[in-house]
Design goal:
The complex is a heterodimer of chains A (241) and B (189).
Chain A (H helix, E strand, L loop, with lengths): L21 E5 L7 E7 L2 E12 L12 E8 L14 H17 L8 E11 L4 H15 L9 E8 L2 E4 L3 H4 L4 E8 L4 E8 L4 H37 L3
Parallel strand pairs in A: 4-5
Antiparallel strand pairs in A: 1-2, 2-3, 3-5, 6-7, 6-8, 8-9
Chain B lengths: L2 E3 L4 E4 L3 E3 L3 E4 L2 E4 L3 E6 L10 E6 L13 E10 L2 E9 L2 E12 L22 E8 L6 E4 L6 E4 L9 E2 L4 E3 L6 E3 L7
Parallel strand pairs in B: 3-7, 10-12
Antiparallel strand pairs in B: 1-6, 2-5, 4-5, 6-7, 8-9, 8-11, 9-10, 11-12, 11-13, 14-15, 15-16
The chains are: A alpha+beta (241), B mainly beta (189).
Chain lengths: 241, 189
């Protein structure tokens, strides 16, 4: 099947280095300490953050740092086929992966004896859900005022029809080619997440990785804009100078 | 005009500045850890480190915590022989985000005749009391005291269900039934 036509257009009309449209909104769950809605094309994810709050399970508590708990779940209507039950392997793996990524980014030593809960709910899945979840979690943590080292951002890239492609959607992801998900801390220039399905020769991998990192930096810019805009709105509503 | 920053933004060098709230040091650079306005605060003249402090003020007010010496408003949950358990609701004029447990021990109810205090004649479950934080206490609760004229029960419901009116520092009267009940009443000016 042709995923990139001779003119260089993909199935949805994008070029190889074009990302899908991003929509990012803060404060969508008013009960949570911080929350965000993040959309990458048709993939929609909501993140809600509660914390830092008193630790609920004393046996898990860490004396010198905060405990970060993360739960990833997909709504039953998020994909075409009705989802299986909650604790399936993929959800458990993604919860762990996202938790590790966010834990590396949060300054946990500033909040000993407490816990931070990150809840991620996928409302619509069209490829790149783990990236959308990490981006949504970053926005929600920033909204909650939880101190972080940097904004953890994530993007995926693949390799089909001998072309590296940025931000794969579900059809491109299921094509059987490689899918590289990268998570970085842009200002500190560090990689916090690197996952790949299938196999790639080393030089190709480096090209695909570089493309995904560029995508991450663009998302970081967008997230930064959204945060600054939100802060200005709050100041304006409060009537401050 | 202060600048808006997001987590990860470089704020300065650690040789020139010290990292305050909302900022952290990595290697020799100071980065922001919160989203908000960043400002430079000059150091106190008597401090040893004369570097200016870089701070970022976020918009989410984080957890107000009772400090020793602060006056808190609490609701009584349980009264037993030698102490009363309370839930701290406000610290000063501000409400707290999550409830804190507090204890008023028999010897901290009033300033005089502290061993003759009858807890059931000082507090009842459901009363709203104003107390002062003595110390952080143990893992379970803060230690509070009502041993001052202006501390004690500020609002209580009588057996008939009406809010009672204070008569003296030991009694409150129900306006509906006329019955008086014993409490350690706060002198609210």
């Amino acid at each position: 099947m042709e995923y990139v036509n001779p003119e260089g257009l993909r199935l949805d009309g994008r070029r190889f280095s074009e990302m899908r449209q991003i929509v990012a909104e803060i404060g969508v769950v008013s009960k949570a300490d911080g929350s965000a809605l993040f959309e990458m094309g048709n993939t929609k994810v909501i993140a809600a953050v509660y914390g830092p709050r008193e630790i609920q399970n004393k046996s898990q508590q860490k004396i010198d740092r905060a405990l970060v708990l993360c739960e990833y779940s997909m709504a039953h209507f998020s994909t075409g086929d009705r989802r299986r039950q909650k604790n399936d392997r993929r959800s458990t793996e993604l919860s762990l992966v996202i938790r590790q990524t966010m834990e590396a980014c949060i300054l946990t030593e500033l909040m000993p004896h407490s816990q931070i809960d990150i809840f991620l709910q996928v409302l619509q899945a069209d490829g790149g859900t783990r990236s959308a979840c990490i981006n949504a979690a970053t926005l929600a943590l920033a909204d909650a005022g939880i101190p972080m080292r940097d904004l953890a951002v994530s993007c995926s890239a693949g390799y089909l029809n001998s072309t590296p492609l940025l931000d794969l959607n579900y059809v491109e992801d299921s094509a059987g080619g490689a899918d590289v998900t990268v998570g970085i801390l842009p200002k500190l220039d560090k990689v916090t997440l690197l996952q790949m399905d299938a196999k790639l020769p080393m030089e190709t991998f480096e090209t695909v990785f570089a493309l995904a990192s560029e995508g991450c930096k663009a998302i970081a810019e967008r997230i930064r804009e959204v945060l600054l805009e939100n802060t200005k709105q709050l100041e304006y509503r409060r009537g401050a100078a | 005009m202060t600048k808006l920053v997001t987590p990860g933004d470089k704020l300065g060098s650690a040789t020139q500045f010290k990292a305050g709230k909302g900022a952290y040091v990595n290697d020799t650079t100071i980065y922001a850890s919160l989203t908000g306005y960043f400002q430079i605060v000059s150091p106190l003249p008597e401090s040893l480190d004369q570097r200016a402090i870089v701070e970022v003020t976020g918009h989410k007010a984080h957890g107000l915590i009772p400090e020793p010496g602060s006056v808190v408003t609490a609701r009584v949950t349980k009264v037993i022989a030698r102490m009363a358990s309370v839930n701290i609701l406000c610290v000063g004029p501000k409400a707290v985000r999550e409830k804190f447990a507090g204890i008023i021990r028999q010897q901290d109810v009033r300033a005089t005749e502290i061993d003759k205090v009858d807890m059931h004649q000082s507090f009842r479950p459901g009363d709203i009391v104003r107390a002062m934080v003595l110390s952080i206490g143990d893992a379970r609760a803060y230690y509070l005291s009502t041993a001052k004229n202006e501390l004690g029960v500020v609002s209580a419901e009588s057996a008939a269900g009406e809010t009672m009116v204070p008569i003296s520092w030991t009694e409150m009267q129900c306006p509906l039934s006329g019955q008086t009940e014993q409490r350690k009443v706060a002198k609210v000016v």
